[in-house]
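User: Modeling request: complex.
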Amino acid sequence: MTDTLRALMGATALTAVALAAQAETITIATVNNGDMIRMQGLTSHFTDMHPDITVEWVTLEENVLRQNVTTDIATGGGQYDVITIGTYEVPIWGANGWLVPLDDLGADYNIDDLLPAVRGGLTVDGHLYASPFYGESSMVMYRTDLMEAAGLEMPEAPTWEFIREAAAAMTDRDNEVYGICLRGKAGWGENMAFLSAMANSFGARWFDMDWRPQFDTEAWSNTLTFYLDLMTNYGPPGASNNGFNENLALFQTGKCGMWIDATVAASFVTNPTDSQVAENVGFALAPDNGLGRRGNWLWAWSLGIPASSDAQEAAKTFIAWATSSAYTELVAAEEGWANVPPGTRTSLYQNEEYLAAAPFAEMTLRSMESADPTSPSVDPVPYTGVQFVAIPEFAGLATEVGQLFSAALAGQMSAEDALSQAQELATEEMEAAGY
Amino acid sequence: MARAVTTQRKIVFTALAWGIGLMIFFPILWTILTSFKTEATAIADPPVFFNFDWTLENYQVVQERSDYMRYLWNSVALALGSTFLGILIAVPAAWSMAFVPTRRTKNVLLWMLSTKMLPAVGVLYPIRLILIQLGLLDSKIALIFILMLINLPIIIWMLYTYFREIPGEILEAARMDGATLKDEILYVLTPMAIPGIASTVLLNIILAWNEAFWTLTLTTVNAAPLTAFIASYSSPEGLFYAKLSAASTMAIAPILIMGWFSQKQLVRGLTFGAVK
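Assistant: Request completed. Predicted assembly structure:
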């Protein structure tokens, strides 16, 4: 072998090593929601701008994602560099030091453009711990044709009593049309998300200022009794098994007169490809009881970086791209304004093109603005979160309480029994947790 | 004397067997049918069985979005690897327990079975920490070992049951003819136990293929098998039942085809002993 050949081979090897060292791989854990999948499809735009970063996607079922990410962070596995988390996890994980603060996402990021309520929910001690990818509240989606046939007109801001009246008027069991569809499936993010938000509008709360559970109050009794009465008389059969997707299917196939759920559903039910009722959908704010609080929640699927990541800078570069206004414009250019991720930035709701493409935009914004995670109910609370309580014990406790309420909806126990068992359960759990 | 079976009785039992068989198979059939529907038809009420516009769009989307072959290869490697390793350990173990039992054999067998009663999540953290230390997180090697260990009690129990039915006298006769231990296991025992070993192998491949706790919690990209592929199509907000069904059909197709072709061995191995 000649010296020249040796030198050439050496140079090639060195170049290869140098290139390998430069290319950084980030692993992103996410869920299979439409907006996330769209982001996955647009990854090449990011890698074209940042050829030194390779992106690997891991899409998981929501609960598996939470379990895997928690386990990974707790054991320092470093499997993920960017994780998709919600407003429930961020305050807890941020306070635990499990997430990297995102205060330096660059000048183009324009942090002041984030919707204040969403930003507040993702901030701990003045530091942003996750950047919102899409945000949602909840609102009333209703069939304009059925409402008209019933001789009623949906106000922009209905009361619960009006909802009951409208549900009764729209229910036509012979034709399998049910006045109201609500979540009944047990789970802290399923029926308890809805019921906790609904309870706020009835003046109920999870805990008083001394962290005493409040299920033995009249406000909770009124909430659950009203919900059970509404669903038993005007809801679809088997409602205790219905979550977001089940109700979406019912609404899209014309079985529901009204559906109170995530604002993100608006783009599904108005899409004529999948929805049989796309032309006849109207929107209204979540109902209230005249107590100053509406039954709507606030949630944001956000991107964060676990402290165990060994590619934090590359991860920040990705998050800054994926949650920027420029990304919104990219989605609009590629797939139309109706498909941009909603609910994170004020500027989106000032964009005429978006407002024209998304008839539900204004109601979404108003719903999001009317939710206050720091003061969710009528009386003061010691926690943050509208449809959840941002403490680690909540997920387990609320799922157990959700099972009781779901059983009550299925007719297996009375509202009183469900509430007294919930009170007992919550008291035990909170005492054990040292509150 | 064989019991006389009336035609009427035969018809009733055949119809019953078919009815139960179809009932068990129906969810799989429904998944396959849904995979050829549009998302709107997938949620149609009343449900549509065959009379719809068949489409391959879901398969196309799934193919575009996911690297199916990588997941498939990982599933094959994990299922075959863990079963092969398991059989290597289980055959001698079951032989010794069946033919040279000690007074502790029964306890050992019960202890092995008892490890199956521990909820898997109970050892999740220790196993993760060990794998992090060894640098084996998200690796096929680690999962092959873990799946082998999970299924080992079942493999040993199944083989033990088959071996127990082989009369010891046959092996004794081989020994008297001068067969060594190796000859005895390879040329006498194995041929007689082939149906049992075959059904054990098949069952363990199926168990390893379908395992969905460790394969979901210990993998991200490199070792993720078809269980992770299916899980990636489950959506908390959005109706993607047709795409989920297409992904499920693609994930179960290999094992379904394998099961179809080997059903004779599987049934024979599960229902008959070695010398019956």
